[in-house]
């Protein structure tokens, strides 16, 4: 409540009969003030129908009573007030907190205060003029009334902001707890409970997206959806400068528009999984980031790189397989070995069709025939063995993600 405005420098001195008329007319003024607020602010009309009418009336009555007592104290310093200004500010502060919990924006209570002070001034200024209060004192009276409502408004706004902050922190804690439960394979019952505690409505699917922190604009597109969850930095091991998000309902036909929307985010996008299986998508993304350049531009769609991801699942095993598959060429010079390895790869991919192999390698068909003879001499019957063909196909498949040009998605 540190932003509450200060009280006015001077209180008006009103005649006793004006103050008594104000006090006597308090119930009727409260009725008119609350009625005007309910009529003109639809959100308060709804609140009144939700058994909030008593709270609204009590708050209004306290507000008016406290102001009358302050005015009476200015007119008669010997009078004693039964209600301190701090009590009124506390009431406004807690009313603002209740409004935040009800999900109503702070503009609603500010509108109510503006309407309230209009009704107060319309009623009380007429009484002051009737009783012959001078223009200077009426001016001070107006300043006092509006300054008083400013303080009340500020207290209500402060309560609203504090409650939103508290609710936001609590929500983030519960959402972090939910993500950690997803990543540790918690039971379905645990996950549903965690989702309820986080006030998070489970979507059909979740898709893991690793994005560079420096891409603020693209991150904004992703995090704008209230169902988006963020994976805590200490929950998984990820490349420095990246964060992992879980985005709702961007699978199937929604995937292509989503990929387009994040543009040049430098993002790695995992597969869409049912929300309870989001861990699978996170692991896919983390695996892909091991191969993708940290300076990646564009979007890396892991659904289009399944072969590379499979080949990169065990890098050492792939290296050993490549060494064994190409062992028959070990006696050749490095350039000759590379030419024959490229020819063997093209032969496998084009099912031995020489014209297509020649076009792929940018050589003549006669060169292809010559190289294929060398390969048959080196491999012998292994080129007829299904198991050997399968191993050669896997060993020579690629390019691997780590060999992809930067920015190639």
TrEMBL record:
InterPro entries: CdaR-like_regulators (IPR051448), PucR-like_N (IPR058663), PucR_C-HTH_dom (IPR025736), PucR_C-HTH_sf (IPR042070)
Pfam families referenced in this protein's UniProt entry, alphabetically: HTH_30 (PF13556), PucR-like_N (PF25906)
Organism: Mycolicibacterium hodleri
Lineage: Bacteria, Bacillati, Actinomycetota, Actinomycetes, Mycobacteriales
The protein's name in its UniProt record: PucR family transcriptional regulator
Domain PucR C-terminal helix-turn-helix, residue spans: 340-396
Domain of life, source organism: Bacteria
Residue span, PucR-like N-terminal domain: 13-183
């Amino acid at each position: 409540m540190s932003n509450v405005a200060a009280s006015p420098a001077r209180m008006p001195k009103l005649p006793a009969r004006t103050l008594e008329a104000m006090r006597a007319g308090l119930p009727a003024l409260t009725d008119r003030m609350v009625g005007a607020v309910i009529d003109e602010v639809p959100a308060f009309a709804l609140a009144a129908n939700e058994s909030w009418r008593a709270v609204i009336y009590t708050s209004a009555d306290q507000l008016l009573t406290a102001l009358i007592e302050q005015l009476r104290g200015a007119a008669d310093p010997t009078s004693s007030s039964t209600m301190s200004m701090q009590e009124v500010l506390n009431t406004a502060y807690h009313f603002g907190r209740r409004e935040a919990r009800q999900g109503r924006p702070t503009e609603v209570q500010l509108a109510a205060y503006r309407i309230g002070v209009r009704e107060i001034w319309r009623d009380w200024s007429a009484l002051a003029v009737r009783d012959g209060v001078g223009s200077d004192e009426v001016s001070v009276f107006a300043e006092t009334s509006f300054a008083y409502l400013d303080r009340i408004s500020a207290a209500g706004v402060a309560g609203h902001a504090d409650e939103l902050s508290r609710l936001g922190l609590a929500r983030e804690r519960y959402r972090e707890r939910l993500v950690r439960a997803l990543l540790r394979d918690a039971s379905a019952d645990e996950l549903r409970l965690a989702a309820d505690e986080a006030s998070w409505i489970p979507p059909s699917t979740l898709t893991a997206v690793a994005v560079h922190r420096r891409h603020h604009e693209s991150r904004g597109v992703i995090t704008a959806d209230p169902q988006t969850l963020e994976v805590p930095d200490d929950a998984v091991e990820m490349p420095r400068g990246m964060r992992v998000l879980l985005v709702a309902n961007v699978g199937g036909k929604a995937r292509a528009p989503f990929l387009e929307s994040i543009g040049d985010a430098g993002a790695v996008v995992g597969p869409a999984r049912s929300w309870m299986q989001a861990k699978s998508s996170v692991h896919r993304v983390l695996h892909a980031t091991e191969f993708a350049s940290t300076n990646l531009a564009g979007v890396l769609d892991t659904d289009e790189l399944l072969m590379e991801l499979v080949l990169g699942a065990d890098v050492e095993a792939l290296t050993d397989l490549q060494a064994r598959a190409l062992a028959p060429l070990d006696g050749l010079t490095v350039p000759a070995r590379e030419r024959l390895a490229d020819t063997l790869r093209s032969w496998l991919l084009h099912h031995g069709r020489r014209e297509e192999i020649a076009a792929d390698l940018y050589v003549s068909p006669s060169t292809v025939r010559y190289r294929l003879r060398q390969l048959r001499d080196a491999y012998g019957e292994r080129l007829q063995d299904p198991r050997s063909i399968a191993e050669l196909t896997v060993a020579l498949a690629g390019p691997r993600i780590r060999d992809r040009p930067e920015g190639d998605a």
